[in-house]
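stuck on whats below:

***
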Amino acid sequence: MNLSDGSDLGRDFSGQGSAPLPKPNAQAGTLVQFSRPTPYAEAWILQKQLQEERIAGKRGDVLLLLEHSPVYTLGRTTKPAHWDCGEEVLRRTGASLQPVDRGGSITYHGPGQVLGYPILKLSNYCSGPKQYVRKLEEVVIETLTRWGIKGYPILGKPGVWVRWNHADAKIASIGVRIDYGITIHGFALNVDLDLSPFSLIMPCGLAQCHVTSMAEVLQSGISSSVVAHHVGQEFARIFNIQWMNVPPDYRMQEHPDFYLESMSGIHT
C-alpha cells in the first residue's frame, strides 16, 4: 500500500515547551538518531532489514532520524515531466538518483534536512494509512510550533506547508509504504539546507510548488540535530511511544552489516 505524498537558533528550549511524557500504556520503541549524513542506499538497507524483522516479530517498533547525502528519490508516481531536465543535469548537482517504492513523485534530500523513517506496526497506533499520514503531519506541525512557525496540511497534498512570500510553500514531504501492516519510508523536514536542487524538478509532482525551509522562514541558521531531537519528542507524544535511545553509530556508513548485527539484540 502506498501513499504519496550549522548553527543553533541561540534559544534555550530546556524545560520550555517540552513534550509531555507518554501515557502509562505507551508502546515501547527504539529511537536511533544518526550523527552525520548517511547515503540513501545504506539507510535503505537498514530500513528494509528492520521492516522484515518487524514483520517476522523479531523486533519492536523503530524510528530512524537522520540526514542524507544529496540524493533525488523517484517515487512510484514519478513522470518524465516531473524531472524533464534529465538525469545528467541532476547528477551535476552532486546528487545521486534513487528509484524508491514509496508513494509520491520525485523529491530531493540533502544535509540540513531531517528524515524520519518509522518502522511501526500500524494497527498499534492508527486506524489506517490516512490517519497515519495525518499523524506524521501533526508531528512536523508541532515541531515547527516550537520555533514559532505555523505549519498546516493541504487537502490532497500530503506533507506540511507554511505561508511564505504570500503563497503556500512546502516545508516537509511525506511518502510512505505499508507492507503486511508494517510501515516504511516516512517524512522529510527542511531545516537548514540548500534549496536550489528543488528548482530542477517538480517537487512531489506538484506544478509551481515552492519549497522552503525553517531557516528561510526564520531568516536564521538552525541546527538540524536540535530539530531532530524535538521531532523525536513530538513523535513519542503523538504516537504514545516510550523511546529506548540507541546512540548514533558512526560505523554504520563503513560497516552497515556490523551495525545491523549490533542492533539485533534490541527487542522492545
Q: What stands out?
A: The longest strand covers residues 167-179. The CA atoms of residues 1 and 178 lie 5 Å apart.
